[in-house]
């Protein structure tokens, strides 16, 4: 696996993930660069980006989440009162944007 450098995470090197197929035809043609397992593994760096996007989450929320997608979805539902489907869409977009740069 190749290593990638993500400037948004302070130039830290991350292991390049396997590519996946698009789930939605509206998604950009390029594949996701990182899967959620890698986000979980780099949670300390990524949680600052999560805090920027979803400012209602507390530091305690982010510590409890510890990079687990389902935990994050649950905390987002509590703080924002949105449906799970909408939040999953937002997380997919966040994942794409975060690691496309």
With helices defined by DSSP (H or I, 4 residues minimum), what is the helix count? 5
The order of strands across the largest sheet is 1-2
Could you give the count of β-strands?
Answer: 2
CATH superfamily of the domain at 37-101: YjbJ
Structural class: mainly alpha
The topology string of helices and strands comes to EEHHHHH
Shape: globular
CATH 2nd-level architecture of the domain at 37-101:
Orthogonal Bundle
Average pLDDT: 78
Question: Portion of residues in helices?
Answer: 40-55%
Q: Sheet with the most strands?
A: 2 strands, antiparallel
CATH class of the domain at 37-101: Mainly Alpha
CATH topology of the domain at 37-101: Protein Yjbj, Chain: A
Which stretches are low in confidence, meaning pLDDT under 50 for 5 or more residues running?
A: 15-22, 28-33
What keywords describe this structure?
single chain, 101 residues, mainly alpha, Protein Yjbj, Chain: A, two-stranded antiparallel sheet, 5 helices, 2 strands
Describe this structure in words.
With 101 residues, this protein is mainly alpha-helical. The chain has a domain at 37-101: YjbJ (Protein Yjbj, Chain: A). The chain is 52% helix and 8% strand. Strands 1-2 form a two-stranded antiparallel ribbon. It is globular and about 35 Å long.
